[in-house]
UniProtKB/TrEMBL annotation:
Name of protein: Pimeloyl-ACP methyl ester carboxylesterase
Gene Ontology molecular-function annotations: catalytic activity
PANTHER family found in the cross-reference section: HYDROLASE ALPHA/BETA FOLD FAMILY (PTHR43194), PEROXISOMAL MEMBRANE PROTEIN LPX1 (PTHR43194:SF2)
TM segment ranges: none
Domain of life: Bacteria
Organism, scientific name: Microbacterium natoriense
Domain AB hydrolase-1 residues, every copy: 18-194
Pfam families xrefs: Abhydrolase_1 (PF00561)
Amino acid sequence: MERPHTRPRTDGRRSRTLLRVLDGLGIDRAIVIGCSMGGRTAIDLALAHPDRVAALVLIAPAVGGAPAPVLDPIVAELDRQMDEADAAGDLEEVNRLESIVWLDGPDRPGRAAPRARELFLAMNGIALHAPDPGEQLVPDDAWKRLDEIAVPTLVLVGDLDLAHVRRNSQQVAAAVPGAELVELGDVAHLPHLEAHAAALDTVAEFLGR
């Protein structure tokens, strides 16, 4: 998961990897569900290979080429603490701080249930300890091409998520023709990880259509 100050970037490798997965499984068209960077990958796939995507479910999606965020003071302070812990090599502290930003919501530390926190720390810990993949190439500007997406699209975002993530999610829903936006209460960036009932019911209803 990207740090809150990081501008979403992609060089297309993720969407090409997803395409190879579909090919390997013999799937011609798929309903693609993605959260955060996964949402960005889903958007990139829909733009690059529209014939392979039947519908999109985007949960707090990142978008290539979106405006760089201006952080609220509380998020900026958490980000400063993350930089300090990272410089000291304390990845466990980075993981703890990121759980506040992405799981709890920046101004609600400790909000999420213990099981969700356990899942987050395990998932995010793998990413934090992974080797640096190296410098990325200049991204395609998906932000300016959202109106080219021509499949049924559902966008979900939590009311405790970062302000720029909420704004970007609203813009995605406004720009994609016919897209539906659902704003979820009392949840941040990862409603599915928390088994948020309204999120799961909304996705199930959308897929049923």
